[in-house]
User: Fold these one by one.
Assistant:
Number 1:
Amino acid sequence: MTRPLRVGIVGAGPAGIYAADLLTKDETLSSCGTSVSIDILDKLPSPYGLVRYGVAPDHPRIKQIQGALHKILDKPEITFYGNVEYGVDLKLEDLRRHYDAVVFATGSDRDRPLDIPGVDLPGSHGAADFVFWYDSHPDVAPSWHVDGTSVAVIGAGNVAVDVARILAKDADDLLSTDITDNVYEGLRAKQITDVHVFARRGIAQCKATPMELRELDKQPGVEVLVYAEDFDMDEGSLQACEESNQVKTNVKVLQNWAIRDERGAERRLHLHFLHSPVEILGEDRVSGIRTERMELTGDGSVKGTGEFVDTEVQAVYRAIGYLGSPLTDLPFDEDRGSSPTPGAGSWTWTRSTWTACTPPAGSSAARSASSATPRATPWRP
Ligand SMILES: Cc1cc2nc3c(=O)[nH]c(=O)nc-3n(C[C@H](O)[C@H](O)[C@H](O)COP(=O)(O)OP(=O)(O)OC[C@H]3O[C@@H](n4cnc5c(N)ncnc54)[C@H](O)[C@@H]3O)c2cc1C
């Protein structure tokens, strides 16, 4: 029996933990009598990454996967070390010294930047900061003044939808969740009556999933309003509907909202499609947002019309995507916001105990390095 293969995994989100699970089950390792010993390191004191600090508190069913992740961490081959930050407490050299192989699964933790005038005004927030606050991330200040009566959310994906829902929702409807007292108090103090969500493209390009989209209209005291003039569909949009059930369902949900009568709810969630934000307005803090009306060009993409619309808002939340952060001593692709991941075939395990048993491309050991989409670096002697 050789000594166990020592694997270090940086990042204790689902990708890191599932990669560890796959390694413990790897038939190639067991067939050559090699066991595995895995350390999972995370800069935070607790595991589960964005499942804990990203998924919204009113999505307890999704947060429940923490139970499954916990079971994996309980395996005797796996040890979790919190409060260990790669690049600060440990460098690549240290990992090389201690492990036969390393998996980087550090996820995406910051907002994609939006380069428009006014973006740095007080009252303009990245969604990541707001989400970290309502999920009580340990690095984020406990107080947040949820300002304004009318606010904007930029984006049309699930994060934008989460942020819009939490902003529109009555804080009391979150009491059954695991939100902390400071978050409940912060949300209870809000005076928001109107949340305006701005999406650059059309209804067939809305990236939110149908369940999350429908959920917007199921919040007590909230109604979704959509605008018929935003509902253009071009050839590309029709084709997208034919090719994807998700697109077809989203379009149907939105069209049904467009033809019904207003209910006169206390709070309104306005969905504006074909509006591209061009400026956040205000002198010393946000007082509005300027959007340009867009038109579809035939293939589902959009171009500006030169027509601008100003909407009065007192805060703006930008939810146009998350990016990963550069990792010390590893290559980084700024545009994609991630470290390039080598293909499964390029994984090399070159320490003595492992070279005798290099997993062929396509084996579960190789797949575990790529299918869970961790950022991975090949091990070099
Ligand atoms: C706002 C938001 C809402 C979401 N809602 C849902 C949802 O409802 N349903 C759903 O299925 N998915 C949802 N997702 C997506 C889901 O959270 C992610 O797909 C998933 O968490 C990604 O897993 P990961 O392991 O790649 O990264 P992460 O979960 O981000 O985990 C990465 C881990 O690496 C650690 N780390 C980072 N850098 C270092 C370092 N230098 N040293 C040590 N550790 C480090 C981090 O602390 C973190 O624990 C949501 C995402 C966001 C942002």
Number 2:
Amino acid sequence: MFSLNQLDKPFAAEITNIDLGKPLSDETFAAIHATWMKHPILVFRDQTFDVNGHEAFAQRFGRLKPRLRKTGQQGATAAENPNVMFVSNIKENGVLIGTSPTGALNFHSDSSFDEIPSKAGLLYGIEIPTIGGDTLFVDMCDVYNSLSEETKRFIADKWVTNIHLPSLPLDPTQTQEERIRTARKAVHPMVISHPDCGLPILYVNRHQTYKINGMTKEESDQVLEKFFDLVDRPEIRYSHKWRKGDLVLWDNRRTQHGRSDFDPTQRRLLRRFAVFCDAPPKPFHVEKMASRPELEPA
Ligand SMILES: O=C(O)CCC(=O)C(=O)O
Ligand SMILES: [Fe+2]
């Protein structure tokens, strides 16, 4: 049906001999989905679909999540389709056509600052710099499993607040306090349960997790920093070196991703669709959790 090769980490695999631009039978899609549940990072090589083919494949996974920025805003594509997003440093008429234009990116799980984040990201490589700009992936189920029993007990009943601080140039009239207060935010369990396979997943990330609820910011920073350092270890990541025509599909519940730096004078253009989760992330330790708390004032 298609060929599968494990990449240098067991959670990542490469799929060849499939054209995602052609209609896929239910049987083929079910085989892709089952493979994805075993390897939450799937790299499909040599894809040539246009934006419609890309969108049609993304829609097989569920309802598409619109991009954050509106057409005409800095960092939004000019495309009328509200679901397509570019990750790019390219400017047209002096305006960035995509988000996350330059530099390294901290590990994160897309839209974890929304009550209903995305379950899948589908990123397609169009223009690739010659060195750097790798997308880095970590399996947060593995990270959870590597924790001591004492740490697992400590985090079992915790909620965290995630916030969205945009990667684009800051509004110079806002103070940092105002940015945090007015940012898009959501409260989620620190350990979530994978909705399809029930596995425990550590759900905090350096880019978006602002605070553990019920702790002071200082206490929380100290605790979170240890988890962020665990995620940052190079030996546990799969570094995706892009080739033009790659489509990378990630399970956004189970994995986090970041990016290595690259030469800002080289063009980088990737096109992305994201798919909504079916419901807010659920706690792994339901019996230990009080009901979802209100947002704490920042
Ligand atoms: O630029 C990249 O490699 C990753 C960008 C990213 O975080 C995303 O598309 O969600
Ligand atoms: Fe992302």
